[in-house]
Design goal:
Blueprint (H helix, E strand, L loop, with lengths): L1 H16 L1 H36 L6 E5 L9 H6 L5 H8 L4 E13 L12 E6 L3 H4 L4 E4 L4 H6 L3 E4 L1 H7 L9 E4 L2 E9 L14 E5 H8 L5 E6 L5 H15 L11 E4 H44 L1 H9 L4 H38 L7 H27 L3 H6 L2
Parallel strand pairs: 3-8, 5-7
Antiparallel strand pairs: 1-9, 1-10, 2-3, 2-9, 4-7, 5-8, 6-7
Helix pairs in contact: 1-12, 2-10, 2-12, 2-13, 10-12, 10-13, 12-13
Length: 406
């Protein structure tokens, strides 16, 4: 135990005596560890944010839409895809495993105004049938949703987001007020519960919800979608299968033809995000390994310099009885402690960057413990791997020749 303590004391003494050289040697290790910890913290934060955002679909819910989620289609492929319609909605509602279904549409980049104030051209208009609030888990902070009667009569009523309410009615209750959209007056019957922004933005609260019947009068049919709620969580997959078979039959698809619609669910979105995060993780590890390689070369260099500078010291210690394994352990420990110090600094910096992202971007970042342990483990491994050669070289020095060195 005393021998280990003496070895550690000598190692730290070497760093203190050459702080600038040690710090420059550590940079590669620091960058590598910082990259892993910060990126894993950001990815975990994105995963938490995505999971929270995906809860919008509601319990036991999924969606059928014309366009694939996150995918791209050529104009020719898009032209072949039929739009969903009210007939599809009614047919979906008749499926055994389906509890309810709602049609929905949307349009962004709109202005909403009152007699005194006007929003920027960044408001998103969401529209749907009355079931939309159930199939998308829409939460209200005040007021109510629009009713079946209001939908069927095409009444101009609206539920507005928290940010939009703050913009148009600062310090005043928004319920019962009138807003104007596309030159038409709408009565505010409810306000949405504040959800917060995604990646630091506020788009999730800067919106208006209106009956789909009124939306069609203003904007026409744009991207008709159907959100569906199954009777229970156990029946979600069966409901998806039923809806898929129904839509293929309604679109006249042959068994060999691909779907010309897309079924979107929390599971499919999560799987897509996980695939993207895996690519980011691999890229991060690539940067980390490159940085660690540079840091390892730096450690190899500084340890070779240390052996050269301390050749006389090594000779004296061996002449006084120090064994080869003690010399080997001393220099190997110095290399490991040096790289571990860089790993600790990198972890601390990575955690700091993750918390900075939480503050700046509003991401619920969370650094996983495995990323911290992996960074520290890789740092130690690099120190040992690149420090063993200089340590072995020091252990093999002839004491007589070493003491003759000036």
């Amino acid at each position: 135990m005393n021998a280990l303590w003496d070895t550690l004391r000598l190692a730290f003494g070497t760093f203190v005596s050459n702080p600038l050289r040690s710090f420059l040697t550590l940079l590669g290790i620091v960058i590598g560890a910082t990259t892993v910890v910060a990126m894993m913290g950001l990815i975990q934060g994105l995963r938490n944010q995505v999971n929270e955002s995906l809860s919008e679909l509601g319990t036991n819910c999924f969606q059928v839409q014309r366009l694939p989620f996150g995918g791209e289609l050529t104009p020719a492929q898009l032209a072949k895809r039929p739009r969903l319609n009210e007939g599809d909605l009614e047919a979906i509602r008749q499926q055994p495993s389906v509890l309810t279904a709602a049609a929905e549409d949307s349009k962004g980049g709109q202005k909403v105004s009152t007699a005194q104030r006007e929003s920027r051209s960044s408001v998103s208009i969401w529209a749907g049938t009355p079931e939309y609030f159930q199939t998308n888990s829409v939460m209200l902070s005040a007021g109510r949703a629009f009713t079946d009667t209001e939908y069927l009569d095409g009444r101009r009523v609206a539920v507005i987001g928290a940010d939009l309410a703050d913009t148009l009615f600062p310090g005043v209750e928004a319920l019962g007020q009138t807003v104007r959209i596309q030159g038409r007056s709408f009565l505010v019957v409810g306000t949405l519960k504040r959800k917060g922004g995604f990646l630091g933005g506020g788009g999730q609260d800067n919106n208006v919800m209106m009956p789909l019947s009124v939306f069609k009068q203003l904007f026409g049919v744009r991207d008709y979608r159907v959100s569906i709620q199954a009777h229970s969580a156990e029946l979600v997959q069966r409901a998806q299968d039923e809806v898929t078979l129904l839509m293929r039959r309604r679109h006249g698809l042959k068994p060999t033809e691909e779907d010309d619609f897309f079924v979107f669910s929390n599971e499919s979105a999560t799987e897509m995000f996980n695939n993207i995060s895996q690519v980011i993780s691999v890229a991060s590890f690539g940067v980390c390994l490159l940085s660690l390689l540079v840091g390892g070369i730096g450690i190899l260099n500084i340890m070779l310099v240390a052996v050269t500078e301390r050749t006389r010291e090594i000779g004296i210690r061996k002449a006084l009885g120090a064994k080869k394994r003690r010399i080997l352990a001393q220099f190997a420990t110095e290399a490991v402690v040096l790289s571990l110090t860089g790993g600790v600094l990198g972890v601390a910096l990575g955690v700091g960057l993750a918390h900075l992202a939480r503050w700046v971007l509003g991401l619920p970042t969370e650094v996983p413990m495995w990323a911290v342990l992996l960074s520290l483990g890789m740092s130690c491994g690099v120190g040992l791997g690149f420090g063993i050669y200089p340590a072995a070289r020091a252990a093999k020095l002839d004491p007589v020749e070493a003491m003759r060195t000036e």
